[in-house]
Amino acid sequence: MSRDIKFTVNVDEYLSLNKYEVDESNAHIELVDEPSDEEFDKLIMVCPAALYKRDEEGRKSFDYAGCLECGTCRVACGDTIIKKWENPQPTMGIEYRFG
């Protein structure tokens, strides 16, 4: 009897089920003014929501709006480039929904 179970998970599909209430007046994550390339690249690799990006010219960008509030960035980089990390205010942030 074969126990090979093969299935594919589309992460984007599951993430799209979530609801976000973005607090435009209070970012719950802030980076230092000049984040180092090495630390920023760590965040590009570990952030499950892909909030940290570089464009074709190497310019860095970050947007807290789609944050999953997992804390991976805080664990990976501590206070090296994360100036502020706190949970969003009540009724703000992510609301997980399961299909």
Just give the CATH class. Answer: Alpha Beta
Compute the number of helices: 3
Q: Characterize the biggest β-sheet.
A: 2 strands, antiparallel
Q: Helix proportion of residues, in percent?
A: 10-25%
> Can you name the CATH architecture?
2-Layer Sandwich
Radius of gyration: 16 Å
Q: What is the residue-averaged pLDDT?
A: 88
CATH topology: Alpha-Beta Plaits
Shape: globular
Q: Name the poorly predicted regions.
A: none
Number of strands: 6
Oligomeric state of shown chains: single chain
* Global structural class: alpha+beta
The side-by-side strand order for the widest beta sheet comes to 1-6
SSE succession: HEEHEEHEE
Q: What is the straight-line distance between the termini?
A: 31 Å
Question: Helix and strand layout, with pairings?
Answer:
Layout: H1 11-15, E1 19-21, E2 29-31, H2 37-46, E3 52-54, E4 60-62, H3 72-77, E5 82-85, E6 93-95
Antiparallel strand pairs: 1-6, 2-5, 3-4
